Amino acid sequence: MSKKIAFGIDIGGSGIKGAPVDLTTGEFAEERTRIPTPDPSTPEAVAEVLYELVDTYDLPADAPIGVAFPAPIHHGTVRFIANLDPSWTGVDIPALIHRTTGRAAIAVNDADAAGIAELRYGAARDADGVVLVSTLGTGIGSALFADGVLLPNTELGHLEIDGHDAEKRAAESARDRENLSWDEWAERLQRYFAVVEDLLSPDLVVVGGGVSKKHDKFLPKLHLRAPIVPAQLRNAAGIVGAAALAADSAGGQTGAGAQSTRGQSTGD
Ligand code: BGC
């Protein structure tokens, strides 16, 4: 069986990361490249980095490319942006990439990409019922699945809780910015996840983002009705999920719409 490869890119507030992904295993097929996010992080500046990133690898001209982006992505277009340059609002990401690299690409919300990766290859592998994957980083990302089907762009990090945008109080960046102890941060996470659990009654909650490698410091302090477990793909999840969705899209499924995570990348 020949390897099924697609290229995944994860655009974040501090770094832009990319790697070819082996879709049979969900692992990087070559080493990942990370380039610091330009400041200001305008579409033009980021597009140049994307060009450099893609150019680092010897990719076939028709290699599927998927981009995970930290904003709601509606049919390829950024609806609003919380943590990158405001000029991203309204940008059609696949069109921008095509102009810059001459290649076709799909774009997806970063948490949705991470969620897809966790359902296909990680902590929520083949989980049924309602699954919430929550990423804790500069912001709070959310990916919501019912029986393996993604409801895209849920944006639960922007719920207003106790008069605040939830991610401003409970993201990993708030812990850093306000120098919170693990206990103090866990209290804020408890409030966030309790509200989300009351709204959605998930069967499983998966917590991702870079900080999930220190899950023993805060996950045991959280008490939900549903099991709450650390992500397995951690920071690789955005890249892997974006690559998997790009391959689905190249194979005839739509890019970032509601779809089964079980897609085409497993099994064949
Ligand atoms: C954005 C989401 C994103 C999350 C994590 C939020 O501020 O609105 O789209 O998934 O941050 O990056």
Automatic annotation (TrEMBL):
Alphabetized CDD domains for the sequence: ASKHA_NBD_ROK_PPGK (cd24058)
GO molecular function, one term: kinase activity
Pfam family for this entry, one: ROK
Descriptive protein name: Polyphosphate glucokinase
Coiled coil: none
Organism of this sequence: Myceligenerans xiligouense
Annotated InterPro entries: ATPase_NBD (IPR043129), ROK (IPR000600)
Family note: Belongs to the ROK (NagC/XylR) family.
Keyword Transferase part of the UniProt annotation: yes
Alphabetized UniProt keyword annotations: Kinase, Transferase
